[in-house]
User: What shape does this take?
Amino acid sequence: MKFFLLLAAALLVACSPASNERIQVLIGGKLIDRPGAAPLEHSVVIVEDTKFRAVGSQVHTPIPPASVKVDASPYTVRGALIVAGAEANLELIDAQGQVSRRMVAGKWQ
Assistant: This one.
């Protein structure tokens, strides 16, 4: 009986959808996508591999279900150019104005 329970558990784990490490989604941050631009509150930034795939508001930007989700709500998301197709370089800025995390070419530093 234990064997069948362990087998069933292993099959469930194997069938569950795994997150796609190639796609990262930053959700809820205040986005400043280029110098001098007005900020976008409650943004979604989708990064696939090394490039931005989509950028927009939480209301209008669908989040891929099989992705790594990052809660960016406490941060300002800032980059030189955050638009679909551009190389994914950005910073997460905390409430004190300090860089909390940095992404270069889609990889967290």
Remarks:
- The longest helix spans residues 2-15.
- The chain has one domain: 19-108.
- Confidence is low (pLDDT under 50) at residues 1-18.
